[in-house]
Amino acid sequence: MRIGVDILGGDFWPEAPVEGAVLALDKFGPDIELVLIGDENLIRQELAKHGADPSRFSIVNCTEMVGMEESPTKGIASKPNSTINVGIGMVKTGQLDGFVSAGNTGAMLVASIMGLGRIPGVNRPTIGALFPNHNGEPILLLDVGANVDSKPEHILHYARLGSIYMESVRKVEKPRVGLMNVGEEESKGPADVKAAHALLKESGRLNFVGNVEGRDIYHGKADVYVCDGYTGNIILKFGESMYDVLKSRYAGDAFIEAFNFENYGGVPILGIRGISIIGHGISNGKAIASMIGSAVEAVRNGLVQKIEAAFQTDAQTADTK
Amino acid sequence: MRIGVDILGGDFWPEAPVEGAVLALDKFGPDIELVLIGDENLIRQELAKHGADPSRFSIVNCTEMVGMEESPTKGIASKPNSTINVGIGMVKTGQLDGFVSAGNTGAMLVASIMGLGRIPGVNRPTIGALFPNHNGEPILLLDVGANVDSKPEHILHYARLGSIYMESVRKVEKPRVGLMNVGEEESKGPADVKAAHALLKESGRLNFVGNVEGRDIYHGKADVYVCDGYTGNIILKFGESMYDVLKSRYAGDAFIEAFNFENYGGVPILGIRGISIIGHGISNGKAIASMIGSAVEAVRNGLVQKIEAAFQTDAQTADTK
Q1: Hey, do B1-118+271-301 and B123-263 end up sharing a CATH topology, with the first three levels equal?
Q2: Best mutation site among B179, B182, B197, B250 for testing chain A: the one with the most A CBs within 10 Å?
Q3: pTM reported for the whole predicted model
C-alpha cells in the first residue's frame, strides 16, 4: 500500500510532515510505502535531522505549493504541479492508495472532490472529525465545514457515510446516529433540522437514536453526530480550544490527553472515489503520523468500496420500491 | 428592591430555590427583599431546615406549578395561578423588580415575553449565557435557544442587546462583538451569516470585531458572541458538559471551577419590559443564589431602561437618516 504525504503543507512544513512520516514508518505494518511529495532537497535535509534513511521512503520531487492563505479554487487551477494536485492525481491514477495533507483545507477539498469525483448516489461529500466521549472512545461528528449550507437530504447522507465509516474502519457495530438539536423532542429545532429528523427516521438503513444535544457529545449517546457544516465546525473548534486551555494547566495528564484531537488522526473526506485526508494547519509530527495511520486503516478496510456498494444498494432498493 | 423567587420550579424544588434564597439573603445589600413564591407550608419547612428566620422573607402562597415536561403554552394558559404566572404578573404590576425561576424554560420564556411585552424596536427578545474565557472573565453568548430560527436582523439585535447588557451590568467598556462563523474572512459561512455580518458591520452602534470561530470563545477575541439559537444552544450545552466531565476528575480545582456555569448566574431575557431570569432545571442552591444576584445587578444598573433608551435612539436616528 502506498500513502502519499504532502511535505509542503500546513503551518509547520517541511518539519512536521517529514517528522510525521518518520514517526509513521514501520508503525502501521511492513506493507506500507510512504511517498513524500515535496522539495527533494528539503526532504533529504529533514530526514537527515532525524537520522532517517532516505532509501526507506519514496520521494516525488515537487516544489510548487498552494499557500495556506491562497484562494483554494485559484490555487488549484493555477498550480497544476503543486503538491496537492500531484498527490490527488496520483490517487486518481492508482499510483497512491491514499494521500494526506495539512495544507490549505479548501484547496484539498476542491482538489479531492474535483479530482477524484463523487461516489455515485452521494449528494455531498463531507468531512468529519473524531472526538473522544467521556470514556475516551472516539465518536464521529460531521459535517465539520465542507458544507456550511446543508440541506436535510445532505444530512441524511452524512449519517449514512458516517455510519459506514464507523462500522467498517472503527469497528463500531451498528453505529448509533444522533441528530444535533436543541432538545430530544421531534418537534424541536429549526425547520431544516426537523426535516432532517424525518428523513433520518424514515431511512430504514440507519441506527437512528433521535435528537441529541450539545451535552450528549461527551456523554456518549451516539457514535455518529450529524449537523450542518457551520454548526459542526464551531463545535469542533470549540472542543479543540477546550483542550488547549486545559493543556496549558495539565500538560501530560492522561485524562486531559484523551481530549487531544491529534490522537485521533483525520477522517477521510467521505463520499469521494479515493482516500484523501485533510489535517489541521497546526498539525505537528504526531498528528501527521496519526493521519497516515487513518489513511492506512481506511484503505485496509476498503472504505471507498464499501461506500460505493452501500450507495449502489440504496439506489437499487429505491428503484424497486 | 424586591426580587421574586419561584420555589416550585426546577428539578430540585422546593429544596434548591429555598436554599438559594437563604444563601442570597444579605449577600447583595440591605435594600433587597426576597419574595418566595410557592407553597407556604413547604417554604416554612425548608427555611426551618436551614435555621432561617421566615420573617426575613416575604412569602406569596401559591400551590400551582407548570411541570418541567409540560407544554409551555398550554401550561401558561391553563394555570393562571402557577408560580411563573404569579411572579411575572407581579413584575408587570411593579410589585416585584425582578423574578427568577429554574422551572420550565419554555413556560418562563412565553410568560415573560407575553406578560411583560417587548421593548419597542426590539424584533426578538433573546436569552444569553455567560461563559468564562481562558482568563476566567465572563463572555456573553447569545442567542442560546430562545429563537432557533434566527434571521440576520435578529442577530443584529442580539448584538445590540448583548452589548448593552455587558456594558451596563458587567461594566465592560465598548464590548467587542464577534459573529460566530467558520472562518475570519467576510466571505465565509452560510448565506444568513454573511448577511448578518453585513448588518453588524454597517450598524455603526457596535464595536464589531468581525467573524469569530469556535476556538475564540475561550481565547477571548470578543465580549459578546452572537449566533442563531440553534447553534448557541448546542455550544452552551457542549461547554457545560465539558465542565461535568472535568469535575468528575478534578472536583474542587479552582481552574476547572472557572468553567462552572453556576458561578455566573443567569442573564435576564433581553429585550422585554422587566427583569426575568430563567435558570437551568438542574440549578442547585448556589446557582439560584447567583441568579438572584444577577437580577439584583440588572435592576440596580437600570438594564431595562437603558435598552429602552438605546432602541429609542436607534429608531430616531433611523428616522432622520
Answers
A1: yes
A2: B182
A3: 0.93
Out of B145, B214, B238, whose CB is closest to A233? B214
Backbone angles phi, psi at A114, to 5 degrees: -70, -45
pLDDT tens sequence across A29-41:
899 999 999 999 9
Q: Is B308 exposed, middle or buried (0-12, 13-18, 19+ CB in 10 A)?
A: middle
Whether A102 and A108 have beta carbons less than 8 Å apart is answered as no
Among A49-58, A94-103, A158-167, B135-144, the minimum mean pLDDT is found in B135-144
Cβ contact A155:A170 at 8 Å: no
Task: Kindly indicate whether the ipTM for this predicted assembly is greater than 0.85, answering yes or no.
Answer: yes
CATH superfamily of B123-263: Isopropylmalate Dehydrogenase (3.40.718.10)
Digit-coded pLDDT (tens) for A143-154: 998 999 999 999
Residue indicated by cell numbers 456518549: A220
Q: What is the CATH number of domain A1-119+271-302?
A: 3.40.718.10
Among A139, A242, A246, A249, pick the best mutation site for testing chain B contact (most B Cβ within 10 A): A242
User: Where exactly are the structural domains of chain B?
Assistant: 1-118+271-301, 123-263
The CATH T-level fold of domain A123-264 is Isopropylmalate Dehydrogenase (3.40.718)
Supply φ then ψ for residue B212, to 5 degrees: -130, 155
CA distances from A26 to A91, A262, A289, A296, B119 (A): 22, 19, 11, 12, 67
Q: Map residue A238 onto helix, strand or coil.
A: helix
Please state, in angstroms and rounded to a whole number, the distance separating the CA atoms of residues A159 and A161. 6
Question: Cis peptide leading into B80, omega within 30 of 0?
Answer: no
b/e code A165-176 from CB counts within 10 Å (16+ = b): bbbbbbebeebb
Could you count the other beta carbons within 10 Å of the beta carbon of residue B35?
20
Only one residue has cell 440596580, namely: B300
Helix axes A303-320, A285-300, angle to 10 degrees: 50
CATH number of B1-118+271-301: 3.40.718.10
Instruction: Identify which of A167, A139, A181, A146 has the alpha carbon closest to the alpha carbon of residue A271.
Output: A146
The grid cell for B292 is: 438572584
Extract the C-alpha cell encoding A92.
486518481
Residue B57 DSSP code: S
Report the alpha-carbon distance of residue B180 to residue B259 in Å, rounded.
20
Pairing, β A128-132 against β A138-142: antiparallel
Query: Cβ contact (<8 Å) for B233 and A213?
Result: yes
Residue in B145, B193, B238 nearest the CB of A235: B238
Backbone angles phi, psi at B10, to 5 degrees: 95, 170
In DSSP terms, which residues pair with B3 in a beta bridge? B34, B98
pLDDT tens column, B220-238: 899 999 999 999 999 999 9
Q: Do A182 and B241 touch (CB under 8 A)?
A: no
Q: How many C-beta atoms surround the C-beta of residue B61 within 10 A?
A: 13
